[in-house]
C-alpha cells in the first residue's frame, strides 16, 4: 500500500501509476481515506501530466466497480445505449430510445440533469406530467423486459467514485482533462449492463469540446478505452455550433421530440438521431448496412411504431401519455415574445451561437447555474429560422416563452448577440462530421 502523498508525487513528477495505485486512489476516495485535498491534488496532477491509455482504462474500471454494476442477463435483445457529450437543444435521447426499441434493440438508458448552458434528459422527461425518472431496480428490469426501453437517473449506489470526483473537479478547475472525462463518462455507461455503446461527441460553440481536433481526441480516447474493456463502441462526431433542432427548453423540447416521432422533425435533429440509431443497430448486429438501417427507421416512423413506443415509455414511467396528442397538457409559459429581424434588407442567418442561446435559455429559467437550482420546465426558445435561412425585414427569428419580464430582457440580450447575418447566401456544413470506431 502506498500512502496518498506517494501516489500524488508519482503523477506530479510525470510518472505512470500502477493499476493497484489507481485502485487504491478510487477506493480511498469512496471510503474517505484519500482526503478531498489529496484527491484534488492528484486530479490536478492528472490534468497537468495526463494519463496513458492503460492508466485511463484502469481508472475507468476502478470507478465503474466502485458501486453496484447492473447486469441484465434476462434481456435477450441487444442492449445498446447512447451517450452525448452535451449540447444546446439536444433532445436526441427522447426520440432515439423509442425509435431504437421499435426496431429491435433494448435501450437501458441512464441519464443526467442539465448544468450550465446545456440541458439534461432527466429534466426534459420530467416536463411530461407524472413522469418519474426514479424506478426501483425491479421496476427498471421489468420495464426493459416488457417494452425494451427505460430512461432513468443513476441510483446512488452506482459509481459513487464519479459522484465524489466530479464534485471535486467542478470546484478545483480539473474538469478539462481527456483521461478524467473518459473515465467519468465510461464508468457510468459501462455500469449499466450494456452490450455496446454509441457516443455522440459534439464539437463547436455550444459543446464541451470547442474544436474538431479536441472532440476527435476525446472520441478516439473514449472508443479506445471502451473497446479495450470489451464493449464495441462507435463515436459519431457531430457539429454543435447552433442549437440542435428548433426548440430549447424542457417542455418545448419534448414537444419537438414528439413531432419528430410523428415524422415532422427538423432535418438536423433527424440526421443526428438516424445516424446514432443506425450505428446502434450495426453494433447490436441487427443491420449490416446504413441503407437497411435507414429503411427500418423510416418504416418505424411512418407506421407509427416509434410513436407507439414513446407512448408506452411515458405510460410505463407514470407519465400522462395523452400529451402525445394534446400539447396543451404541458406546462406553458405565461407569455410568448416574437423576436424579429430588424435589418432593412434581405439577409441570411450566418450563425446562431449555441453557447449564447444556451445562456439565454438558462436566464429564462430553463437551466441551472448551480447543481441544486430549481428550473422552470415551461420556458424556452423556439427558432423559426436557422443558420443559412433567408430573412426579410420583420420576419420572426424565434419565439421566446417566458414568465418574468426581467428574465425576458436578460435572455433577449444574449439572443441578439447570438444571431449574426450575411448579405450573401451562407453555406452550411454537414452536421455529421465523422465516425470513429476501433478498426
Ligand atoms: N460528462 C461527464 O459525465 N463527466 C465529465 O467529466 C464530463 C462530462
Describe this structure in words.
By secondary structure, this protein is of the alpha/beta class. The chain folds into three domains: 4-50, no CATH class; 80-326, Pyrimidine Nucleoside Phosphorylase, Chain A, domain 2 (3-Layer(aba) Sandwich), CATH 3.40.1030.10; 331-422, Aldehyde Oxidoreductase, domain 3 (Alpha-Beta Complex), CATH 3.90.1170. Helix content is 45%, strand content 15%. The strands form four sheets. A four-stranded mixed sheet has the order 1-4-5-13, sandwiched between helices. It has a four-stranded antiparallel sheet with strand order 6-9-11-7, with helices on both faces. Strands 10-8-12 form a three-stranded antiparallel sheet. Helix 15 runs antiparallel to helix 16. The model has no long low-confidence stretch (mean pLDDT 95). Bound molecules: uracil. The site of uracil has 5 residues, from helix 9.
Condensed summary:
With 439 residues, the chain is α/β, with parallel strands linked by helices.
* Count of the domains: 3
Helicity, in percent? Answer: 40-55%
Mean pLDDT: 95
Small molecules held by this entry: uracil
* Distance separating the two termini: 38 Å
Summarize the topology.
Layout lengths: L3 H9 L6 H13 L4 H14 L3 H12 L15 E5 L7 H11 L4 E5 L9 H5 L11 H11 L1 E5 L6 H12 L6 H13 L5 E8 L8 H17 L4 E7 L7 E2 L1 H12 L5 H17 L6 H13 L2 H12 L18 E6 L6 E6 L1 H11 L15 E4 L6 E2 L4 E7 L2 H14 E4 L9 E6 L2
Parallel strand pairs: 1-4, 2-3, 4-5
Antiparallel strand pairs: 5-13, 6-9, 7-11, 8-10, 8-12, 9-11
Keywords:
439 residues; single chain; alpha/beta; 3 domains; four-stranded antiparallel β-sheet; Pyrimidine Nucleoside Phosphorylase, Chain A, domain 2; binds uracil; four-stranded mixed β-sheet; Aldehyde Oxidoreductase, domain 3
Amino acid at each position: 500500500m502506498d500512502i496518498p502523498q506517494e501516489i500524488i508525487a508519482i503523477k506530479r513528477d510525470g510518472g505512470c501509476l500502477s493499476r493497484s495505485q489507481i485502485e487504491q486512489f478510487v477506493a480511498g476516495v469512496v471510503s474517505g481515506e484519500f482526503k478531498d485535498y489529496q484527491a484534488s491534488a492528484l486530479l490536478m496532477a492528472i490534468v497537468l501530466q495526463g494519463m496513458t491509455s492503460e492508466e485511463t482504462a484502469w481508472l475507468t474500471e476502478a470507478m465503474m466497480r466502485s458501486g453496484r454494476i447492473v447486469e441484465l442477463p434476462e434481456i435477450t435483445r441487444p442492449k445498446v445505449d447512447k451517450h452525448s457529450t452535451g449540447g444546446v437543444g439536444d433532445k436526441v435521447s427522447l426520440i432515439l430510445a423509442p425509435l431504437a426499441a421499435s426496431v429491435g434493440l433494448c435501450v437501458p438508458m441512464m441519464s443526467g440533469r442539465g448544468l450550465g448552458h446545456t440541458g439534461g434528459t432527466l429534466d426534459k422527461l420530467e416536463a411530461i406530467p407524472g413522469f418519474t425518472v426514479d424506478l426501483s431496480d425491479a421496476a427498471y428490469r421489468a420495464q426493459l423486459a416488457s417494452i425494451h426501453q427505460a430512461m432513468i437517473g443513476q441510483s446512488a449506489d452506482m459509481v459513487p467514485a464519479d459522484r465524489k470526483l466530479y464534485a471535486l473537479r467542478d470546484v478545483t478547475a480539473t474538469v478539462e482533462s481527456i483521461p478524467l472525462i473518459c473515465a467519468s463518462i465510461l464508468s457510468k455507461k459501462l455500469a449499466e449492463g450494456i452490450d455496446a455503446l454509441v457516443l455522440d461527441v459534439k464539437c463547436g460553440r455550444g459543446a464541451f469540446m470547442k474544436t474538431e481536433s479536441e472532440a476527435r481526441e476525446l472520441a478516439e480516447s473514449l472508443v479506445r478505452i471502451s473497446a479495450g474493456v470489451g464493449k464495441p463502441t462507435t463515436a459519431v462526431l457531430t457539429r454543435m455550433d447552433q442549437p440542435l433542432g428548433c426548440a430549447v427548453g424542457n417542455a418545448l423540447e419534448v414537444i419537438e421530440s414528439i413531432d419528430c416521432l410523428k415524422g415532422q422533425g427538423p432535418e438536423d435533429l433527424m440526421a443526428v438521431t438516424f445516424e446514432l440509431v443506425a450505428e446502434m443497430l450495426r453494433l447490436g448486429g441487427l443491420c449490416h448496412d446504413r441503407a437497411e438501417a435507414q429503411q427500418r427507421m423510416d418504416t418505424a416512423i411512418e407506421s407509427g411504431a416509434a410513436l407507439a413506443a414513446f407512448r408506452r415509455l411515458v405510460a410505463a414511467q407514470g407519465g400522462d401519455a395523452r400529451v402525445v396528442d394534446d400539447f396543451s397538457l404541458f406546462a406553458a409559459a405565461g407569455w410568448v415574445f416574437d423576436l424579429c429581424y430588424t435589418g432593412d434588407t434581405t439577409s441570411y442567418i450566418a450563425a446562431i451561437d449555441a453557447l449564447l442561446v444556451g445562456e439565454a435559455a438558462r436566464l429564462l429559467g430553463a437551466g441551472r447555474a448551480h447543481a441544486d437550482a430549481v428550473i422552470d420546465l415551461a420556458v424556452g426558445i423556439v427558432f423559426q429560422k436557422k443558420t443559412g435561412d433567408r430573412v426579410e425585414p420583420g420576419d420572426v427569428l424565434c419565439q421566446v416563452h417566458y414568465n418574468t419580464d426581467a428574465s425576458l430582457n436578460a435572455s433577449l440580450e444574449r439572443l441578439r448577440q447570438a444571431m449574426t447575418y450575411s448579405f450573401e447566401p451562407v453555406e452550411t456544413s454537414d452536421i455529421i462530421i465523422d465516425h470513429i470506431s476501433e478498426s
